[in-house]
Amino acid sequence: MKTSNKFFAELFGTFVLVFGGCGTALFGHVGFLGVAIAFGLTVVAMAYGIGHISGAHLNPAVSFGVFVNGRMSLKEMLVYWLAQFIGGIIAGALLLVIWNAIGGGATGVFASNGFGEAFQKACGGPETGYQTISTGGAFLVEALLTFVFLMVILGVTDDRHANGKFGGLAIGLTLVLIHLISIPLTNTSVNPARSLGVALFSKCGEWSAMGQVWLFIVAPLVGACLAGLVYKCLGGCKKSEK
Fold first, then answer.
1. Over the stretch 75-97, which tens digit does the pLDDT of each residue have?
2. Which end of the chain is more exposed for a tag (fewer CB within 10 A), N or C?
């Protein structure tokens, strides 16, 4: 498959992920469960829609984990990263246009990721279900859950997996579970493109999404790197041996 085809597939897929998931958080009244399902559904849809073109990574952490595991080159990973970040930012920009069109006013948290007391207050306080978590706690949550996510992805996309056709469903359901665990803690990232894509347009008084977005770039990459290495140690890098 041509690199340009993969680029546009990843751009489109990441756009759908951020627009669908964050859009549900912004405009829907579905609670944590509804938002978690929305993110999972976007991954399932894109896995079957563009998976045959690019693998439907939709996430720089996923591409990094795949790279560390030996299944893609550095050059290809960087192409994926560029597409994913552009797709996420376009989605964030269009969400802002819609936000303004409905008279949303100041964007506030704008479905951004964050942590700590200031973030909890920005989300409406403890009565909304958000918990106060420390910087270290947030880093651990994001790295650990990204690790889990990548272990599932690397497993179901392994050549030796007997039920590869159901991989998209398994990955989407895993993402739903991850969101159910961590939305109350960090608003769930496990995806640097998703985090940056909306953080750029968040304006929320004392709390700054851009001031904390570094964690949601670094922690998922750490978790993905560990997953790539661990899966390789388990003998799960058959594709790189072809």
1. 999 999 999 999 999 999 999 99
2. C
Beta pairing partners, 29:
none
Q: Name the CA dihedral angle for 211, 215, 216, 220, rounded to a multiple of 10 degrees.
A: 170
Would you state the pLDDT for residue 241? 37
Instruction: Please state, in angstroms and rounded to a whole number, the distance separating the CA atoms of residues 4 and 119.
Output: 39
Question: What is the Cα Rg of the chain in Å?
Answer: 17
Cβ–Cβ under 8 Å, residues 189 and 111? no
Prediction pTM value: 0.94
E-only strand ranges, 84-158: none
Q: In a 3-state reduction of DSSP, which class is residue 108?
A: strand
**Eight-state DSSP code of residue 126:** G
pLDDT tens, residue by residue, 113-131: 999 999 999 999 999 999 9
Q: Three-class SS of residue 163?
A: coil
- The whole-angstrom separation of Cα 33 and Cα 36 is 5
Return the domain boundaries, the chain.
Answer: 3-241
Amino acid at 187: N
Amino acid code (one letter) for 221: L
